[in-house]
Structures are given as structure tokens and as C-alpha cells.
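Example 3.2
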Amino acid sequence: MLKVENLNCNDAKNVIGIVDPTFSWKIKSDTNNVIQKTFHLQMAVDKDFDKIIWNYSEISKKSTHIPYKGAALVAATKYFVRVKVTTTQEVSDWSETIYFETPISDWQGTWITPKQTEVVTVNGKTYHRPFIAKKLFELKSDIKKARLYISALGVYEARLNQHKVGSDYLRPGFTDYDHHVQFQSYDVTDMLKASENDLSIQVGEGWYSGYLGWHGDRDVYGNCNAVIAQLVIWTLDNQKIVISTDQDWCLDYSNVVMSDIYDGEYYDEYLETPTNGKFVTFKRTKASLVPQEGPAVQQIKTIKPVAIFKDPAGNTVLDMGQNMVGWVQFQNINNIGKIELAYGEVLDQAGNFYNANLRSAAATDTFVIQPNNRKRYEPHFTYHGFRYVRLSGFSDAVTAAQFLGIAISSATAKTGIFETANKEINQLQSNIEWSQLDNFVDIPTDCPQRDERQGWTADAQIFAKTATFNRNVNRFFWKWLTDLTIDQKLQNGSVPVIIPDIINGLFGDGLSDTTAAWGDAATIIPWTLYQAYGDLAILNRQYDSMKTWVDYIRSQGSNEVLWNTGLQLADWVGLDSTEDSYYGATDGALAATAYYAYSTKILAKSAKLLRKMSDYNEYRDLYQRIKAAFQANYLPDGVHPITNTQTANILILEFELAQKENVAAIADNLVALLAKNNDHLNTGFLGTPYLCHVLTETGHGDLAYKLLFNDDFPSWLYQVKHGATTVWEHWDGIKVDGSFWSDDMNSFNHYAYGSIGAWLYAYVGGLSQLRPGFEKSMIAPLPNQKIGHCQCQLETSYGSLACTWQLEASELKMTVTIPANTTAVVVLPNVKDKAAVIEQVNQVTNQCADFKFQEKQQQTYTFMNGPEFEIFDEVDEKVAVIPEDAVGFEIGSGHYQFSYTSTMN
């Protein structure tokens, strides 16, 4: 049976606020080798499709990211969409109908702000007190539909008739407010009454005017907050009523005295709330308002504490059992007066509550409570990174049951499953996933707990590939790249080290503008998204930014093929650094030029895909010249880099900067450096993401596994062994003796080293793409006895791609699932009797009409083959070696099982 499922619009369904719709769907079938031949899309303004406005058919196997090509869409209008397909076997029925709705295009409302901002002082620091904009109105007719369009300079929470509007937090989100601010569109039809109604919008400082950045700055974008809203109501008697913000709205305050992203919230029930203030128009163009681009920040999980205890210092401490991001909600029982919840990630060497690594971030929620009150309390406009909470002012009878952890993150759909029979590896994967969730709070932050939480570009590009395995982050990064493009233009082509650029291009230590690997997020992230999701629109959208970045590097110094000027962060916090230094030992110009070559290569590939052939020829030539200059300056003997570090060799191998005949020798050089370090890494931010990849791809997969299984310092499992539930910023964030690396820069929730996750999926689980979006995949796991069993699954743009393997004694069982409308190259590893396995494979694959088994005669398989990737001929192809004891074949969609005797004992 053929069925079309998961029709969506811009990676979601039934969403309000879409302006440029693209459509994707997945095909489900009981038969194998299903390939789409045609599709038929219909769009209408009614759910019965009596009023069709777009009737589009195409002879194509493409089923992802199909752009709308009809007449101009009308603002504030709901559109219904459905699709049917014809495959090589049969014709489907119409899919389930979805809808999307366009936002308003004309704002009758104006930006308003209190005539006089109320400034409060808490613990010696000043804040703008959150205010409330209120509107009372009466409706005399029954409501047909109603929409609330809303934004703020700051963060807001809207309530209609005392009920929270939507399930989002920290709206409108963090953008470069000087240039654009998102607005949200909510369906509030069921919240209105045909009588008296009350709309209130509380606005806090958020990222707009609160404390922001590690320098202690505030008012980065403005020194007061503002709100704009427009409630549009259509009644059953055909009236259209518009209620929008103006100077006549009522100004009110709640008991929230202050609420700050870093410092937390202060709530006082004894405080009188002034109500005699006035609003004035805030001079801000409405042209900067844009519909929401990325997923909303929402509650993703609730977590019950695992313990409450007294630490040696006498503090009452709550243990959530998981380093998380959000806050703690509590029910008041027998508490009167001032109570505090202070947040921290770890306990110190003596077992005491510890939060010195948060630096100036107070991360404390304070509640002053009246008697006889059993309400539940939680903050409004803040969030914390924490596992432990120090409780002050609570009665001695306080119990863990009174508390509940509220975990928040940008609402990205889970796409990956990676589970093994090894508990430590599973915990590592859990740590990676949690660090991603915790740091994907509207932007990809470096850490979620201290006075920083900024969109560091290197961290984002390093982790992007792993992120695409764990969650659907397409629109998440799409939104963030909007700010990257804006801020890049403001810096004349340079890409700032953090986005949004709250430091105006300046970093410190004599470094201005940018640095390699950080700025290369402009090219690497769009390319990574294209590979993961197959949407060429991301390259088209970001192409000018990518090109501008490469041209910026090209203009540095006197030699256009080397980047040997400026201070480079290079292999940040590499363990081969000098004592008390953050800078790894790898030469900065070597690392910078390596990334320059890689970005130029990505740009040339993108130019060809976009049919910009003049650019393609220019940047292909530039890439070749950069590569030659790199070899002459940083790899003079062809094998040993000028700084012979692990990271230098890793970058040369990963970015394919050596002559082919020298690759094996460079890999051996890396192996020797690891052996010299007792088979342990000493890499930082640049070397770590690619270490296990290059070892595996050069035939040293056993050593990659050894690095994975190391559990002493430094290693991934060292953190697991020391109780980590998220990934640390430093390999020795907690030292062997229990002391800390430092108080100054020591996050226990950084995802950069979690980039090993991409290797776990691709090599342990065996899933990687041969064509963008996994239209063609490679399923080639590397079984290991310490893993024993692995279930690896990825929800691709086409459907579920999966590989499960189990090693029992000498028998290897392997099950693969290939989604409809795709193909895969399957490699069965460690085959003892190839003839028997080939016969077994023939029995399976002969069921497929178009995919007869043919063992690969060559012992290599070229990744990303196909005409669109034959770009640099001999220098562009990545090659995966199929060992002599493996059987490889290409096959169509379906579910297949194999079982055979393995060479592994």
C-alpha cells in the first residue's frame, strides 16, 4: 500500500506566520524499491478544495523543499495544501490536508513604551522593572476567528482573559534588534468571549536592554522596552475588529520587581503595584518587524528532583539529577517571607554547592511570599543552566516533591536515535543531546549558565553536523544565519565571533573583526545544512555571505592565498598549549589557511550547484592556489606540518590539503603523535571534531575506537566517569583530584566536544549521506565488541533511515531500513565467508526489480559521487575504503535483514 505522509510547510504543519512556503512529504510503502515519478500539489483557500488557487504537477522524484510558485499570497489568509504522488509501482491517494496561514502585512498598532521607565535596584545592580500593557474591550458578537500579532523590544508574555497566549517563552527571540525583530502570530479564537475581555502583555528586559555579555554591559540595544500588538477579530456577523497598541492602553505592573536573563527574577507579593503611569509612542520603524523564522523556545520536558540534601557547608541543596536549562517551579508550603533559589551546575571538591564559574551571573530567583499561600511559583523572563539548586528561606520540612524542573529549548524535532549495549557510550550520547538542547535556546549558544550565553560562531559550526543528526535544526540555523548575514555586512565582510554581534566586531587581546574557524561558520553551516536536508535554497540564500567571507580573507595581508595576518584563536583550549594559556600549540596561520582553503572549496562547490559558472571557475582556481601555497608554507616536506601537532595533521587530512601520495604518511604521523601521548588526544576546538573521522577514513578505525573508550584524562568518557550529564568546555573541567580547571572559564555544558556525535552516527551506527538530504545513503557500520549492539536511526527528509547491528560471539546480525524514494550503498563488514554472504544478499536483493546485486570490484567507494559533485576531479573526492572482508552493494528502499559469521572473535 502506498501512502503520502508528513506533508509539511517549512518543516512544520498548521502554522501561522508563513510568508515563503516550501513543501515536503514522505512516502510510505509496503513494497521495496519505491521511487517517485511525479507529484501533484494542490493549494486552496478552503479545506474542501473547491477554491483551488494552485494546481501544480511535475515529473520529478523530488519530494523535499518544493517552493510555492503560484500567484502572490494574500496577507492574513489561511491556505490548505495536499499532495498525491505516482511511483514506479502505483498511484497514491491524496495526503492528509495541512494548512498554513500568512501573517499581516500592515500594522495599525504602534510601538508603545512607558512614559517613564521604572528603574529598580536589587543587590546593588539596576534594572528596568517589567511593565504590563493592558486593554479592556467588549465584544457583542460571536467570534469566527481571531489572531494576535505581537512583538516587543525585550521579552514578552501575553495573557488573554487571564490565560497565557501560546506555549512559547522568551518571545520574540534574540535577534540583532537594531536591524530586525521577529513578531509572532497566534490563534486566540477560543480565548475570547462575546462580552468583556482583558488583554495584557507583560514585557521584560531580556536580551534587548538587560545585562548582556561578559563585560557586564546593559542597554546594548536600547535603554527602555517597548511593545507592539494587533488583535484582529472576525465575527460571525462579518465584522472585522482591530484592537492595536496605542497611547491609550493602560500601564500596569505586577509583583515582578526585576527579571534578567543572567541574574534571575525578584518577585515580591508585598510590593504595591503603581497603576497611574502613561504610555507614549516609541519611535521605532515597523519596517523592521519580520515574521518569526525559527522554532519557538518552549518547555520540552519536566524533571523531578532526584534528591534534597544538606551539603557540608550546611546548605539545603536540590539535585535534579541532570544538568539542564530552564528553572525550578515550586509549590509553597509553610513558607513566609523571602526565599531564594540559587542555581549551579556542579558540587565542589568538598561536596558543597558551587556556582563561582557563573562569574557575574547571579542566577538566583527570589520570591517574597505572603502567608497562607500554597500557590506554585516560577520566574517569567529568565533561564538558568543548572543541576543543583541552593534553597534559602524554606522551612525545615521542605521536600523534593514540592519542586519541578522546567526544561526549555528551541522546539526542534528529534530526528536521531543512537543506542548501544554500552552504558558509558549511551551516557555520552545523552550528554551530547542534552548539551544541544540546553544551548539551542533561540540561538546556538556556547554555554547556558554564566554571564555569556552568546552565539559563538566556531562552537556552532563545529557542532552543526552532529546537531543535524540529533534534531531537525534546519530552520533554527536558518534564523540565526539571518543575523550572521546582517552583522557581516556591518563589519565589511568580516564575520564576528558571536552572532548577534553584541560586541560590534571586537573581541579583545588585540583581536578585532574575526578569526578563522569562527568566521567560517558563514560557509560551513550553510553547506552542512544543505548536505543534511538537501535544500538548495539555503546555499542560494547565503551565497553572497559565503562569497563575501572568502573575499574578506582574500583581502587580508599581502598574499591572497595565505591567511597569515591578525591574531588567530586557532585550536582553542587545546591541551598542547603552554601552561595557563587558552591557545593550543598549532600554528595560527596554518589553521587559518587550512580553513581558508576549506571555505573556498565550499564556495566553489556552491557556485557550481547554483550554476554560477564564472564564480565556480574563479574560486576553483583560488582553491588550487591556496592548497599549493599551504603545502609550500606549512607542509614543506609534504608530510610533516611546521607545527607537528595532532590538530595540524587532523586539519590537513580532513580538508584534503596534502598530496594524495602523502596521505597515508600523514595519517601515520598522527598515529605516532597519539602513541607519544599514550594514545590520548590533546586537541582543542579545531582538532577534536575531525579526529576520529580522519583516523577511520585512513584505516585506523581501531585507534578511533580506543580514543572513544578511554576513560582517563583526557577523554570523552573521563567526563562520563566523573558524573557528567552534559559535555564540558574543558577536558579537565573537573580534575582528577576533584578540583576545578578554573572559576573564570569553566562551563560544564558546552557542546563543542560533543561533535564526536557525528562520528558515532556515521561509523558506529553506520549512517552517512552520499547525496544531499540522504537521497542516497551509505550504511556501513564498524562493529565493535565493547559496543556489542547498536541501534542507529535517522529521520531524514525522505523518511526513516536505520541500521541495527548485534554482535554475538562470532555471529553478526544486521538490519537496515532505507526510506522510499531513496537508495543506499550497504556495506556488510567483517565477513568470514564472502560466498555465503553474497548468496544471502542475492536472495534479498533479487526481490528488487531495478537493483540486482553486484559486488563492488574496486576496493574503494567514492563518497558524494554523481555529476553535481564531480567538481574538482582528482582533488574533490572523498574515498571510503571497503575492506577485503566486506561485501558492498547498492539497493533500493525497503527493510532488509542479514545474518552471517563474522571475522570478529
